[in-house]
Amino acid sequence: MRLENKVAVITGAGAGFGEGMATRFAEEGAKIVVSDVNIEAAQKVADAINASGGTVIADKTDVTSNDDVMAMKDNALSSFGRIDILVNNAGMPQRNGSMLDTDEETFDRIYDVNVKSIFRTSKAIVPVMLEQGGGSIINIASTAALSPRPGLVWYNSSKGAVLTMSKSMAIELAPNQVRVNALCPVFALTNMAVEFMGGEDTPEIREKFQSTIPIGRVNTPRDLANAALYLASDEAAFITGVALEVDGGRCI
């Protein structure tokens, strides 16, 4: 059990990558706070994991709300007594299209969910980790930050901010044994996929994305979850400030 006796808070865990990480972490003994703005989705994931022998609670959190994020922290502590792992997975896509067609409200929402949420969760949870003597934070970035696709300018740049935040947090928190790393997944068939494809899901558009991945297939939640598991575990005790590409060779 690689995460036995550890407690993980995972945002955006009601589906996709977040669900995959919650399921995988629970398999390795972690207690999980499955947090999502959609409480029905979070509860469904929690129920499935608990039915398989895990120890999980569902939590409703809008990561754009300071009050919600603080309540998420309190929920984790009241339920499990500590927080060892924080996965900042909640995200918002941009519909593929001209950078000039994105309105200011959408731009602000992308940055609020993808970037400012990490500020909020850090303010809430890093003090807990400092008091405990350490922890692991995993921020979900994207290959979009490293090898941007056209039509996703504002999303790409938000994930670039996540990378810089991760490295900056890592160097500041390292003396306190709080590790901070980022994961950079490539395109996957999650709830965000249709937006990345421009609002239309066709075999031709899927093939266009898949053709840029040398291994020859798209990402899966299990792929990302296995990488996150390593970074969250004590096996990665000397790893901080890394942006790990989970991309089948896309960024080579």
Approximate strand percentage:
15-25%
Instruction: Tell me the Rg in angstroms.
Output: 17 Å
Spatial order of strands in the largest sheet: 3-2-1-4-5-6-7
Please describe the biggest sheet, giving its number of strands, its sense, and whether it closes into a barrel: 7 strands, parallel
CATH architectural designation = 3-Layer(aba) Sandwich
Give, in order, the helices and strands.
EHEHEHEHEHEHHHE
* The named CATH superfamily: NAD(P)-binding Rossmann-like Domain
The counted number of beta strands is 7
Helix content: 40-55%
Distance between the termini: 33 Å
The structural class is: alpha/beta
Number of helices: 8
Note the overall shape: globular
What is the highest CATH level, the class?
Alpha Beta
| Poorly predicted runs | none
Integer count of domains:
1
- The name CATH uses for the topology is Rossmann fold
Overall average residue pLDDT = 95
Brief descriptors of the model:
single chain; alpha/beta; Rossmann fold; globular
Summarize the SSE layout with pairings.
Layout: E1 7-10, H1 16-27, E2 31-36, H2 39-51, E3 55-60, H3 66-80, E4 85-88, H4 104-132, E5 135-140, H5 153-173, E6 178-185, H6 193-196, H7 203-210, H8 221-232, E7 243-246
Helix pairs in contact: 1-8, 3-4, 4-5
